[in-house]
Amino acid sequence: MISITAVLWGILAIVLKYALQRFSGNTIIWFRFTFSFILLAAYYSLHRPQYFDIFKNPPVLGIIAGVAVGGNYLGFTTGVALTSPSNTQILIQIAPLLVAVFGVVYFKERLTILQKSGFLLAAAGFVLFYRDQLHNLVISSQQYTLGNLWIIFGAIAWAIFAICQKYLVRFWAPQQTNLLIYLVAAMVFSPLAVFHEFQALTLADWLTLIFLGANTLVAYGTLGEALKLLPANQVSAIIVLNPLITLVVAGVLSVQKLPWLSSESITLLGYAGALLLLAGVGLVVKKA
Q: What is the pLDDT of residue 230?
């Protein structure tokens, strides 16, 4: 389940970069959540109508999770728009680190030596990667910094969502909580979507939007199932693979000289920093 999530999220940033040439970020986010909710609601209205019981007395954590995942989408999408798919996927890995920090602060969990080493590795990798990007930018440093701030905002929002979802699946079925989460997020972005962008869409436009909507439905569906079957740290460990998938796919596509996908400005030092960051995250989320 979590491997499916990793692959879908690995190519997500690249497809988003393409979609942002045609649609605003808020429109894309609204469509993804609305599409996912409609399909999920249609399926369960026929097969498991009892899933809609969650709307009779919606759990507060479910509403918070819906707002949080919307914030994650906003930060991630804006980060892709302002920087690059690979940069966004690498820096969003701050999210599982934040989940670990929350566990230490709130649940009074103790870090092992390996986990503490992981934080140091991740910090060193972040500094190396950030330094490399600042010296090899194809965009302004102000735009890059702003994009990274949005990515960090998205990481914080995802950490809040993950913690809420892990608690919710103790009492509700994963897809049942997703019904509530998708509806809340869709309602939050409804006033922000630019609906005239749906006029005169080409087949490629529709296919792109449908893929992004299906990506949300399938990726978060399998994530919810994985959180039910595995400890959160094991789930996070596999999600760390996302940036590697993005780097490979972006590298292959950059050879095609696509006008909407600029070449990655990552040197050997930057790749070393990225690998250190990912290795550090992997150690932090590793089960003691």
A: 77
Do 151 and 76 touch, CB atoms closer than 8 A? yes
Q: How many CA atoms lie within 13 A of 122 on its CB side?
A: 24
53 Cβ partners below 8 Å, 6+ apart? none
Q: Model confidence over 242-256: pLDDT tens digits?
A: 888 888 888 788 777
**CB contact at 8 A, 61 and 150:** no
Question: At residue 22, does pLDDT exceed 70?
Answer: yes
- Is the pLDDT at 98 greater than 70? The verdict is yes
CA dist list (Å): 245 to 5, 152, 159, 250: 12, 20, 21, 8
**Domain residue extents for the chain:** 2-285
The residue written with tokens 């460990």 in the block is: 237
Of 224, 219, 216, nearest in space to 173 by CA: 224
What is the distance in angstroms between the CA of the first residue and the CA of the last residue of the chain?
Answer: 22
Question: Helix, strand or coil for residue 54?
Answer: helix
> Taking the model in full, what pTM does it have?
0.88
Max Cα separation, the chain?
57
Of 143, 132, 161, 9, which is closest to residue 79 (Cα–Cα)? 143
